[in-house]
Amino acid sequence: MFALLAIVSTAVTGFMDPASSKYTSAALSHRHPRTHLVGNHGLGGFLQAMTLPLFWEIVDRSVGYNVCDVALTKLSPRNRENFHKLTAYDLGCGIGRFSVALARQNVKSIKAIDASEMMLSFAKMLTYPHKIKYLQENVVDAVIDKCDLVVASFLMHELPPSGHRLLLENALRKLKSGGQMLVVDADPDNTVLSRAVIDTMEPFFDEYQASFVDTCKELSRIHKCHYAYEKIDEGRCVVWILTKF
Ligand SMILES: C[S@@+](CC[C@H](N)C(=O)[O-])C[C@H]1O[C@@H](n2cnc3c(N)ncnc32)[C@H](O)[C@@H]1O
Fold first, then answer.
1. Which of 28, 103, 128, 148 is the most buried (most CB within 10 A)?
2. For ligand 1, mutation pick of 90, 143, 158 (most atoms within 8 Å of CB)
3. Residue 160 Cα, ligand 1 centroid: separation in angstroms?
4. Rounded to the nearest whole angstrom, what is the distance from the C-alpha of residue 93 to the centroid of ligand 1?
5. CATH number at residue 110
6. Which atom of ligand 1 sits closest to the CA of residue 116?
7. pLDDT tens-digit profile of 195-231?
8. CA atoms within 13 A on the CB side of 229
9. What's the rounded Cα separation, in Å, for the pair 90 and 2?
């Protein structure tokens, strides 16, 4: 009850005074106030975080799979057989959906990072707090320690190209040899999101579509990672699998 009251009061304060948080859109050069229309912060963030569990439940049932579980099957056999030894980061974790998938696989340690206090508040209420450490930071310059696994799901399309570069630089240089990064996101050959939705809610989607593949290939090369890309669901959802040599 106290947790819920704290969330509501943060939401209302953030809504009335968006500058009250250093994580608001205005303060984050790599975010945009129009992202998801209602935003990820303040009252808009509260509404979005509250409805996300239902949203994902509906999506999973309609497509017939959980995208996090499918993405994890793309890891190398060595990593899949040793989940219990892996140290992992979930970047742009939202309400902790991918972190929960990692916790279900018994991953050794999970640090989940998001800029939105609302998403993190709901994540803490909904997930396995003993397994997952939640941190409120901007993913493009968050401190990432040496690790075995980095996941970023449905984050890249919310960042401008400069954010893609900074984030990939930051994550890929911290992967141990054999470590992997999974990037799950909308298919750049999108056939699902309408023009109206993109124009209203996804300010960086066009740039993501146009440049992310090339950026990802380039930074994989620079950081000595094997680059692989698979369509999970044609037109809808893809996964990049970057493996450090
Ligand atoms: C579409 S949601 C995806 C959440 C989650 N990964 C999932 O798959 O359900 C994108 C998340 O990225 C976060 N985000 C966007 N830009 C960010 C940034 N620069 N730093 C940290 N988090 C960011 C948002 O707050 C939001 O929770």
1. 148
2. 158
3. 13
4. 6
5. 3.40.50.150
6. 25
7. 988 888 888 999 999 999 999 999 999 999 999 999 9
8. 14
9. 27
Atom of ligand 1 nearest to the CA of 56: 9
Rg of the chain (C-alpha set):
17
The reply to whether 49 falls in a domain is: no
Total count of domains within the chain: 1
Q: Which residue CA neighbors atom 1 of ligand 1 most closely?
A: 154
Determine the residue type at 16: M
Backbone angles phi, psi at 183, to 5 degrees: -115, 115
Residues with CB under 6 A from ligand 1: 28, 30-31, 40, 92-94, 97-98, 114-116, 119, 138-140, 153-155, 158-159
Cα-to-centroid distance, 152 and ligand 1 (Å): 8
The Cα-based distances of 33 to 14, 45, 57, 86, 228 in angstroms read 13, 11, 26, 35, 32
How many whole angstroms from 44 Cα to the centroid of ligand 1? 14
Structural domain includes residue 168: yes
pLDDT per position as a tens digit, 120-144: 998 998 876 678 999 999 998 899 9
Nearest to 95 by CA among 127, 63, 139, 129: 127
Ligand 1 centre distance from Cα of residue 209 (Å): 17
Residue 21, number of CB atoms within 10 A of its CB: 21
DSSP count for the chain of H helices, then E strands: 9, 7
Evaluate whether residue 14 is within a structural domain: no
Which residue has the CA at smallest separation from atom 8 of ligand 1? 153
pLDDT (tens digit per residue) in 140-168 = 889 999 999 999 999 999 898 999 999 99
Whole-prediction pTM value?
A: 0.87
Classify residue 176: in a domain, yes or no: yes
